[in-house]
Design brief:
alpha+beta; Immunoglobulin-like; 8-stranded mixed beta sheet; 11 helices
Length: 448
């Protein structure tokens, strides 16, 4: 049976478009596996501790004041108020040891950080509320340290005020800070400058964040994890990342963090702090100026597999174009079913890639999946075209395409540029090969 060239080109194009359906299904499998991985991570976090954001120390002052009646003869009201005193200087030194917990085939990084916090406060006389219409009792003050997941506090924190040990108790802070711990501020600290030292071991998963609440804040963070991702509103001023871990340093002032404006926003008209944790365990309602690190896996196989699937249609299209050129230039008939079988092998590459990458390093999984696909197609095409040499040529072209795709996956910043170069190179090759083809004559005569 003789095929009209235009009709055959239309059929090949429709077959190529039809492979969008299996590629979309494979993309859905990748997303499902990624969601399963995230569910495993959430299970590990639920049994240890979630992402941690450390806030403090702060001095929280509670008082009660009389509110005169709005009209003569009215009833006098009593309001409970809260004032928060921020440190003049805050220095945090944190050393995080990271280990991986395995659940099934997945490994989840879990950190345990040793935090040394030094803060200096200027405590005003009568705790800064002497101008209030206070009731008879004196205002009460406590030092509060907040964390986003208190299950990560596995050891009793050590708190010292001017070298004197204080006894911490759970919670007692306003709003979100209830998830931390607090100590009562001694009366002798009122009206003077004091130094507060806190030693805290904190356990968590995914990320460790700090809020720069001091007028001057210094944060030093080091870890044995060699794959940090620095996140938050401020990147470190200095960083050193190696195969043995990393060290980072931040130095900030209240002019950069806007801490004074943030404190004004978190006090409502009744003097209650409106501190709410965000979905990642941070304190976005308190201050949107956190800084810290995520302990990420070195290679996210699902994101790379998902990106690879996006190039699946391009692979099928280019392979079908190569087969069509064999038909046109070599006068060799290739049946649509043979197109479909080769396209199926190309689509299965991506399914092999994601399944193998769950058990092997991504590079090894990519090499195994691409080698199996190229070998199968080269063997099959060699028999279809009646020449193993032609099959090897097709296999070599496919191998070059897979190698180029791997480069694209490893070079995310240049993925668009490399993809555009690949398409331009493919179009250039097709135009050069077919520059002498008389398409009108082929359309009239057909091709065997």
């Amino acid at each position: 049976m003789r095929w009209n060239v235009l009709l055959k080109a239309l059929i090949v194009g429709v077959l190529a478009l039809a492979f969008v359906v299996p590629l979309v299904m494979i993309w859905g499998v990748v997303k499902d596996r990624a969601r399963y991985r995230d569910a495993i991570t959430a299970e590990v976090a639920a049994s240890t501790a979630r992402s941690q954001t450390l806030v403090g120390p702060l001095i929280v002052v509670r008082y009660r004041e009389r509110i005169p009646p709005a009209v003569k003869g009215g009833v006098e009201q009593v309001r409970e108020g809260t004032e928060i005193l921020l440190p003049d200087s805050l220095a945090i030194r944190s050393n995080a040891h990271v280990e991986t917990r395995q659940r099934g085939i997945h490994r989840v990084p879990v950190f345990r950080s040793a935090n040394e916090i030094t803060a200096e406060f200027t405590v005003p006389p009568r705790l800064g509320v002497s101008d209030k219409r206070l009731l008879l009792e004196e205002p009460r003050a406590e030092v509060v340290v907040g964390v986003s997941d208190p299950r990560g506090i596995r050891m009793v924190p050590q708190v010292r005020l001017d070298a004197a040990a204080l006894e911490p108790r759970p919670g007692a802070g306003p709003g979100w800070l209830q998830q931390g711990f607090s100590v009562a501020l001694p009366s002798h600290a009122v009206g003077r400058r004091v130094a507060l030292d806190v030693r805290l071991e904190l356990m968590g998963t995914d990320r460790l964040m700090f809020l720069p609440i001091g007028s001057v804040t210094s944060v030093e963070l080091s870890s044995d994890w060699p794959h940090p991702s620095f996140v938050g509103a401020f990147l470190p001023d200095e960083r050193n990342v190696s195969g043995r871990g990393f060290h980072a340093h931040w130095q900030l002032s209240r002019f950069a963090t806007g801490i004074d404006d943030a404190m004004a926003r978190i006090q409502d008209s009744m003097g209650r702090a409106i501190l709410t944790p965000d979905r990642d365990g941070g304190a976005s309602g308190f201050l949107n100026s956190d800084l810290g690190v995520r302990f990420v896996q070195p290679v996210d196989v699902y994101s790379q597999s998902e990106r690879a699937v996006k190039y699946g249609f391009l692979f099928v299209f280019l392979t079908f174009v190569a087969f069509f050129l064999f038909e046109v230039l070599r006068r060799m008939a290739i049946h649509p079913i043979q197109y479909v079988l080769c396209g199926a092998a190309l689509a299965l590459f991506f399914l092999l890639l994601v399944s193998l990458s769950e058990h092997l390093p991504f590079a090894a999984a990519y090499l195994a999946a691409s080698g199996a696909c190229v070998g199968l197609i080269a063997f099959y095409v060699g028999h279809v075209l009646g020449s193993m040499r032609r099959g090897l040529v097709v296999g070599g072209v496919l191998g070059a395409l897979y190698g180029f795709l791997y480069v694209i996956l490893q070079s995310e910043d240049y993925a668009l540029l490399l993809g555009a170069i690949l398409l331009f190179a493919a179009l250039t090759i097709v135009m050069i090969i077919t520059r002498r083809v008389d398409w009108y004559r082929l359309s009239e005569e057909g091709s065997p």
